[in-house]
Amino acid sequence: MRSNWISVPVLGILLLLTSLAPAQDTVENVTQVEEPVTQEADSLSGEMTGNEAEAEGDQLQPVVEEILPEPDTELDPPGGIMVQDKGNDAGDQLLVSFETPADTIGIFAYHVYRREAGETGEGSWQLAKIIPAVSPPEFIDGYDPELPIEPGVRYEYRVASVNLEGQEFFSEPQVAQEIPRGEFYHTGKTRILIAGALFIILIFYYFSKAQRGIEMYMRPIAGIEAIDEAIGRATEMGKPVLYVPGLSSVADVATIASLTILGRVAKKIAQYQTPLMVPNRDPIVYTVAEEAVKQAYLEAGRPDAYDPDSVFFLTTSQFAFVAGVNGIMMREKPATNFYLGMFWAESLLLAETGSLSGAIQIAGTDAVTQLPFFITTCDYTLIGEELYAASAYLGREPKQVGAVKGQDACKAIIMTFITVALILGILDLVADTHTLDWLRRLVTSPVIE
Amino acid sequence: MKRTVPLMIVMVGGILMIIQYFIPHQISQTIFEYYTDWAPIIVAFALVLGVGSLTRIHSHKIKRRAQNWPYSWAVLIPLYTMPFLAHIWPQSLGGGMDQPSIYHFLFMHIQVPIQATMFSMLAFYIASAAFRAFRAKSALATVLLIAAVIVMLGQVPIGDLLGKWLPSTGLWILRYPNLAAKRAIMLGVGFGMLATNLKIIFGVERNWLGGAGK
User: pLDDT tens for residues B7-46?
Assistant: First the structure.
């Protein structure tokens, strides 16, 4: 113990000294670099004598005489304005492109003006886009919410070359060749449609397979099997069970999965007559959780044991909610803590405080960034999809089990795909061939074009 | 009826939203915006229920003189004072439009620092959790410990001093094995979400209905 007290400050001092070392080196380097500059400046700062000034003046005059005349400030306007409907949209975007003039000297930028076809008057033109001269001469019009494009309206464009002084040299107005129209199918999402349809068919196939009574194996998950044990522990100790259904809204799938598990956990708790506490951050989740717990007590045949104050709303503020739950943990000292749902930065605050209070903790979330915190501080953790599978494990209903097997089938397809691509990719690398170019394009191109 | 109507709403709405995703037309966008506009309205009404629950619980505690009942006043007084200051008496501190209101003052000087305090506790909790977690109890735990030490040292100047290989190895660990594991989990989560959403849309999963689901 004494050696720990000594070693920590010593380590801290060592770290501080080593961090200062590179800083000291940097200071020395800068000091050394500055000296030659200082010496050079000293030699230049001396005043010139009269003879030297006269010589300098003689040398300047020919330079003044050789100044070139000002170039012609007239700029060539751009041409070839092309306006096309941008596909796969709601009819509120247009693809505008133009040809830059042959002589671009002096052009600083291009101003693109737009008005509805048929309008007259100089005031009808609105500046749609400023394109720097170095940028490609094209853009997508319609992004500016203050200058929207209406579907079905024909527009007119003109482009001006702009010099540094801001003078504009306009092209001839060009009526848009196409009218913006909305499409009824997004062709760029075809891959999503095919993959989604395939996976939905697989899931429904396993639904029907499970309903036919075919037994399907599910690997045991320690966290789910420990739920009974955890509730039993709380009952034996005479302490309450704390269930936090996440901090997200009911629109989040993790919250719905958590509420499903809450119903089953509450039923067991009702049978054992253990006190239950369910703090909520979202008011809608609070109403659903209250109904789920009430129903669970009813199904367990213990409606009289239901405490309306066991499910309550705390606050919508993230860290105020955490402070409230931490306070409950330190005061009530629950024997079992469940953290099932969506969590953010507060996950470690909750889990560490629960650990300090001596409770057995079972966590489950699909938030990848919070999983490490739960894994290090909780006794059991349901990782990602295990949270969604928990309701199937607890209830063992055929359709629920079928859905889990359908998920597994989808993952098996992806795993096969990745493995084959990996092996053939390595072979390509070794043999310097391009067998899998089509596959590489399929995997690396954007999901939505 | 109590069960059928919500299930029908969810089924029709869910299928409509799936189809809507693939239709970029203005009509489809209008339907989507119409549906999503309802969400904040429903949340606003649900907030009334939440505040009611909080008020009921703490007023019971005060009436029964339960343990720590004075702290219930600390919940109820700000709960009703802040909306009063925001809407009914939005007076500024020093008078005039240039000075911030009392509500703004209380929010910026009490709530925001308290929230920042809670967030800052994370640093100490991380240190405490790391101290307990990084123990060489088994082969896998030893691998975790070594990887954690390499990644942590790679983020600080002393790691660079000890050797150039430390930060580059730490970066490699984050970019390859760590990212691969993250992606694998996210793939599983994605399929799990798909299956759970299908179960909800087609009425297989009914626990979200609460008591009406049975």
Answer: 898 899 899 999 999 999 989 989 898 888 888 888 888 8
From chain A, pick out residues whose CB is under 8 angstroms from the CB of B195.
Answer: 203, 388, 403-404, 406-407
Task: Give the span between the Cα atoms of B66 and B175, in whole angstroms.
Answer: 54
Q: For residue A48, what pLDDT is reported?
A: 44
- CA A249/CA A285 separation, integer angstroms: 6
- For residue A377, give both structure tokens: 């501080």
Query: Nearest-CA neighbor of A218 among A390, A412, A379?
Result: A390
Parallel, antiparallel or unpaired: strands A336-340 and A241-244? parallel
The answer to whether B68 faces chain A, any CB pair under 8 Å, is: yes
Quote the pLDDT of residue A85.
Answer: 92
* Full domain range(s) for residue B71: 1-89
HEC letters along B126-150: HHHHHHHHCCCCCHHHHHHHHHHHH
Distances B35 to A70, A252, B15, B105, B156 between C-alpha atoms, Å? 63, 16, 13, 37, 49
Radius of gyration for chain B, computed over Cα atoms and rounded to the nearest angstrom: 27
Write down all domains in chain A, each with its CATH number in brackets: 79-175 (2.60.40.10), 222-396 (3.40.50)
Q: Give the max Cα distance, chain B.
A: 71
What's the CA gap between A286 and B52, in Å, rounded?
A: 11
Q: pLDDT value at position A101?
A: 92
Looking at residue B35, its pLDDT comes to 84
Three-state SS at A280: strand
* Candidates A19, A288, A348; nearest CB to B208: A288
The total number of structural domains in chain B stands at 1
Question: Who contacts A142 (Cβ-Cβ below 8 Å, separation ≥6)?
Answer: A86, A92, A93, A94, A148, A149, A180
Of A380, A366, A342, whose CA–CA distance to A225 is shortest?
A380
Please count the helices (runs of H) and the strands (runs of E) in chain B. Answer: 9, 0
Parts of chain A with a pLDDT under 50:
1-8, 12, 15-16, 18-58, 60-64
At A50 the pLDDT is 43
Q: How many CB pairs under 8 A join A and B?
A: 204
Identity of the amino acid at A436: L
CA distance B155 to chain A (A): 13
Mode of pairing for the β-strands spanning A155-162 and A109-116: antiparallel
Write down the ipTM of this complex. Answer: 0.86
Is residue B96 situated within a structural domain?
Answer: no
**Is the Cβ–Cβ distance between A235 and A272 less than 8 Å?**
yes
CB contact under 8 A, A284 and B46: yes
Is B108 an 8 Å CB contact of chain A?
A: no
- Residue B153 in any domain: the answer is no
Give the pTM.
Answer: 0.76
Task: Give the pairing type, strands A311-313 and A276-280.
Answer: parallel
Is residue A274 helix, strand or coil? coil
What separation in angstroms does the CA of A153 have from each of A62, A179, A182, A279, B25? 62, 6, 12, 54, 15
More confident residue, B4 or B209: B4
